[in-house]
Amino acid sequence: MSTAPQAAAKATLPPPPALVGIDTVLKQIVLLVAVFIALVPTIFMIMTALKSDDEYTFNKVGFPHALVFDHFDVVLFESPFFAWMLNSAILAGGAVVLSSAVSCLGAYAIARMQFKGRHFLFSASVALMAIPPVVMIVPLFVLYSRIGLISTYEGAILIYAGLITPFSVYLLTTFFRTLPKELFEAARMDGAGDFLILWRIVLPLSLPALLTLVVVNALYVWNDLLIAIIFLQDDAKRTLMAGISVFQGRYENQIPLVMAGMVIASAPMIILYIAFQKYFIRGLMAGAIK
Amino acid sequence: MDQTSRLKPYLYVAPLVALLLFVFGYPLVQIFEYSFKQIRGIDGPWIGFRNYELIFGQDLFWEAVRHNLMLLIAIPIMIAWSLLVAILLYDRLKGWKVYRIVIFVPYILAVPIIAAIMKKMFQFNGPVNEALRWLGADFLALDWIGSSDYALWTVMLLIIWREAALGIVLFLARLLNLDESLTEAAKLDGANWWQRVWYVILPQMRVVIEFYAVISVITMLSSVFAYVYIMGGGRGGPGTSTMVVELYIFGAIVRQSLPGIASAVSVLLFLVSLLLIVPLFAMRRRANEEETA
Amino acid sequence: MTKTTDLSRRRLMQASAALGAGALAGSAFPAWRARAAEEMTMWWWGEQELPGLQGYVDEVVKKYGAATVKPMLQDTAVVISQFQTAAAAGNAPDIQFLWNGIYHMESVWLGYVQALDGLVKDDVLKASQPTLLSNYDGHTYRMGWYPLPMIWIYNKDMFEKAGLDPEKAPETWDAFLAACEKLKSAGMSPVGGGIQDGYWGEWFFGHGLAQCVDSPGQAVELFTGERSFEDPAYHAPWVKLEELKKAGFLNPEMSSTELYPGIDLIVAGKVAMGESIGSRMPADSKKTNGKIGAMVMPVFGKSKLAGKPIFDTQGIGISKDAKDPKAAAAFLEFLQAPEQLKLLHEKTGWLPSNNTFDTSVIQDAAVVSMWKRWGQGENIPYVANVVPGQWYEQALLPAGQQVVAGKITGAEAGALAAKVAKEWRDFNPDMVDHYKKWAKDLG
User: Fold this and answer.
1) Which label site among A47, B188, B293, C438 has the fewest CB atoms less than 10 Å from its CB?
2) A78: distance to nearest CA of chain C, Å?
3) What is the pLDDT confidence band of residue B3, given thresholds at 50, 70 and 90?
4) Pairing mode, if any, of strands C271-277 and C292-295?
């Protein structure tokens, strides 16, 4: 359907009917297949969660005959999903706040101040985005064991904050650079100091960039498994991802129960995505630029 | 400029530098030291290049490397599929905006969650095989995660499924920024859909495709831990068929208490990622130039 | 470690502490908090395999008056590495959960664990059944906590349906194969479980290798290089597994099923025989109204250990960093007092590891008969507990999975095992001498 862009541009004109031909049908089919593939696991997860264990043994693919909500009861009230989510939320919140604060200060200096080593600091920080986290775990694990930071929120938050900071610095610096110079000059004329400018002018203007940052970074911490299993070994500090990696194995032959757990575990992100899909798409695309 | 204002920038970057030094600087220096030591617990004697000698002489290490390299096969498939879907979305057929939102869902779901779901779906008596048998394709009802012949491919399928979602959205964003007058001109010249895609659209997409390829290489070589950890039963099974470098490091430090060995592999992975930073930087610069041009 | 690197590390920590202080409360760093002198820490594991243990630990700690004990449940993956790293840093907990055999022996050799004889009363220590594999150089390093009879189980209903005697499990390999044949022709899966996570293969090897060695010491020598897995006498367990695979006796979903769900298949009547563990017996027996029977792995070997029930225990010990080893020992003795033993039974439904425990509290006949044979009769230690971690990861688990999947033969599994055993010697030269000495201790 080659004239579609044109049709969209000139919205007042209806597309000529002759163009709804075989190739449009074919394209629609391919797109629907893509949509189907993208959704299959989610559909399977939700449908299975609503089946009874018995039904699942003979009906693995089809719709549930009778909806069963018991598994959600078990997940919500008899397993520590909420505690896991709370742990994940504490870590994500702590790391995002710490990293954002540190990055805002740093990025402001890099973008708006003159000092020696400015370019080096920026390039080095950007380069760190390509270093896989697994490379850092051995020394940090040894160090944390020595100083008793294993299985503490503070310790894990520090690591997560560090891992997400290069991207924060990159994004904020490039954004701060796009802000018009006049803005700063005018503020300075009014006698505002750097910190005041950053706090009162730059940050409010940077809200979209900051939101993008929060989405990408919070999602990174929330979804991480590697750091979580190595540095949070206390059962009470287990994160959602570490929790479900155990959960999915323990109830392997009660697959509907496992799927109910997965529904609960993915619900927060899916709800946030539906509500804020623009920020998610923009944010994760920016995040890919790492 | 007085003394305080000369110092001020350094005060602003001090927390940043401290954080980066702690999480990146210290470990990156330390892995080199550890990699030359035979470490028990937290320290041990210097042993020169012995750790490197040992891992280079070990089949399992090379197998892990080979598996990471095999995952690179997924990249052309991811690119082709993402391009196809992105270009079709760009045609703005009825419903394309909804499609776009749905198609990005795989990238929103956490890897451990989808890996756990896929693992159940691909069980020998799971729904995928049930569906295949129902369709009469019994020969395709393989032991997807239980057989060492297929397990890595199954993991790859999952990776493609998730990472292609990013590719689609990335490519579509680029397409929506294209100069449409070129496609219009081609259309006036009588070029059909394929010709326009091939001669007009794809050349303009080169940079974003290369960029996606480079970040995908980084993903395949160094960020597949969560996929493999869940799908391979935590140990890269069945057998050692889904063992990858990250899991090797994890096993060496956590399960075998060999921080020296783990550090030597970390050093190698670090050097490889350094090599990848160069094209990544070049790519990003070109992407930026293209955007500003 | 030299003083200077120590110093620079400390300085680095100070820098990061200053950094953290901005965003986090400085008091939140536990390392800087002074610990009360009469406070003890205890890192433990077991809730994962014995639900209810957490409740027991919480209550015991509350009851104990002589000191404050702070328990922390560890994650399965890191029980050893976390302890060893902390011990190397001088921060080990006072009391540490210890798996049997090499899983704590390595820490013994590194000097991280204290000998218990002399600290804990002799009779208490003996009664706790730490087993032979807790001994090194004349000392005992663990106190038993709760027992793990290593058993095979079979489903009596399925035996009946196939025309087999439900009260008589096969004892020899030939009788076992005959039973499998009957079950198979009756349309049932004769033997198996789940090996996706690999542990099933460890258990099979542990049961099987006992039939190939005359003492645990001989098993240790497979790693020091004095004996080799290339020798058919020692890779026989995998050859037997291959035999089961080739005959089509293993359940088809075995490769994509994990260990415990695999055992559930036997309980659910979908697989007739397989490996299990004693602590599951009360629940499994109850679920099936006594239709689950315990058996010893059918005998194919002729060694001195063949055909004897295997008995293992989980245990606890005292670390070198214990501030007051006597106080820690007093707590361990407290755990072995009759009231606490009874409490463990109440909270978990399982038994404590103590041969003076009054077993009349057990109601289930199947559990009683299992306990008589495994816990109180003549038993042998679990030889799979002597294998090094690296070999376990890189040879034992993969070999079992690959034989079950039909990818390699038993002999090829032996070749892999021999190769990885050699690699282990290369990677861990400091451990080999300890292994040699241990082999002598274990006869």
Assistant:
1) B293
2) 13
3) low
4) unpaired
